[in-house]
Design goal:
- By secondary structure, this protein is an alpha+beta fold.
- The chain has a domain of 94 residues: Alpha-Beta Plaits (2-Layer Sandwich).
- Helix content is 17%, strand content 16%.
- The protein contains four helices and five strands; from the N terminus they run H-E-H-E-E-H-E-E-H.
- The structure holds iron/sulfur cluster (SF4) (2 copies).
- One iron/sulfur cluster (SF4) binds next to helix 2.
Length: 168
């Protein structure tokens, strides 16, 4: 197979860059009169034009029942399916044989926010959330225990909606 080579001529010594410069400056100045798209975060967090998708997968949240107890029944499915191996579960059992989590922790730092834990949960207890402001100063603060997961109040992710594949 032959490969065609196009030889480009170098501009001569008398070429002026004035035209290209003016063209570039005109383009720059034209942006001064266009509507601004910059958002002054964190003062502005959402607007009519920009909001987080309801399918956003962010900080986890554990839903609770009417008594304020975690809905988790310590079935063990979410730590089993978690590809990042970042869920720690120690199951317990009360005198009636009901299972509950003695320890339930998620390391948000290791999590890849795939949403599998939410998908697999038979009790719809654990959810990824429509939330992203979870920065911390130390790594251990990213390990959310059960109390902290239950205290989250942000909306939960709707994940995949087959009737709305583009999230519109
Ligand atoms: S979102 Fe995925 S990676 Fe994160 S805890 Fe759930 S299953 Fe694990
Ligand atoms: S899948 Fe749901 S019920 Fe099972 S251990 Fe995880 S959070 Fe608890």
């Amino acid at each position: 197979m032959t490969v065609g080579v196009k030889v480009m001529k170098r501009p001569g010594a008398k070429v002026s860059y004035l035209r290209a410069t003016l063209k570039g400056m005109a383009l720059t100045f034209s942006h001064l009169f266009r509507p601004k798209v910059t958002m002054q975060y964190p003062e502005e967090k959402s607007s009519q034009d920009w909001t987080l998708s309801p399918r956003w997968r962010g900080t986890h949240r554990m839903l609770t029942d009417e008594q304020g107890r975690a809905k988790c029944v310590a079935c063990g499915l979410c730590p089993q399916i978690c590809p990042a191996n970042c869920i720690k579960l120690v199951p317990g059992e009360d005198e009636h044989g009901n299972r509950y989590p003695l320890i339930y922790e998620i390391d948000e730092f290791r999590c890849v926010f795939c949403g599998y834990c939410q998908e697999v949960c038979p009790e719809e207890a654990i959810h990824v959330g429509v939330h992203y402001e979870n920065s911390e100063f130390s790594r251990d603060r990213f390990v959310y225990d059960l109390e902290r997961l239950c205290a989250q109040t942000h909306p939960v992710s709707t994940l995949w909606d087959p009737s709305d594949p583009k999230g519109e």
